[in-house]
Amino acid sequence: MNTQNQILQVESLSKIYGKGDNRTQALKGITFDVLEGEFLGIMGASGSGKTTLLNCIATMLKPTSGKIVLRGQDISGFHGGKLADYRGREIGYLFQEFELLDNLTARENITLPLALHGITAKQAEGDISALASMLDITAVLDKFPSQMSGGQKQRVAAARALISDPDIVLADEPTGALDSKNSKMLMDKLSSINIGQNKTIMMVTHDANAASYCSRILFIQDGYIFHELRRNRQAESTSAFYERIVTVMAQLGGGSANVL
Hints:
With 260 residues, the chain is an alpha/beta fold. It is built from eight helices and ten strands.
């Protein structure tokens, strides 16, 4: 990974919901960078602002103030076709509940982002086959979601997030609806893609096991970055990193802001 190559900059990001007595500030001036090829985890308690942050980057929510810059472009200025291109080509989104269309096969669900840009499944067949093999879903490509297990559905959803070769993949609690076996399988696959293809992934999770696959974790508390952990993948195992993550999670609420 080229540690000098910043792919995403979040600068003084703030998000306020409601007005007057109903005013809630979900994000309070958050600033951080994401490096190309990084696997960044975002952790925090329910209501801490982590999903709001992800949804601002995905342009599902408009921040109240601050900037989100992807490859030098401020995405807050995107409208119309440029915004559609950003959502369809430059980011991939992996949802907790899969969000597959029940009346489409796995292959059709995977290629849906391409269809929105006029690219057919036939044109993308090589990419589909490669992703299906990598994610171990070749056998379900022509099946409907009702014919798949939860783990297969989420790996199909991962293929859909990756099919357009986005600059960054945003994952919102991707193991939240999976059992431990399928969670490990999904995280093994995402980690392999991150390392093998230098694919940048930013993942919101409450699961310390899933987070242990990351190269860096930001802990958010009450709209602020509370803590940061970095992992040297060559020197530190996932199990050792897991122990450090659990220690920080136990300290959340203590108010410290150290970098370990």
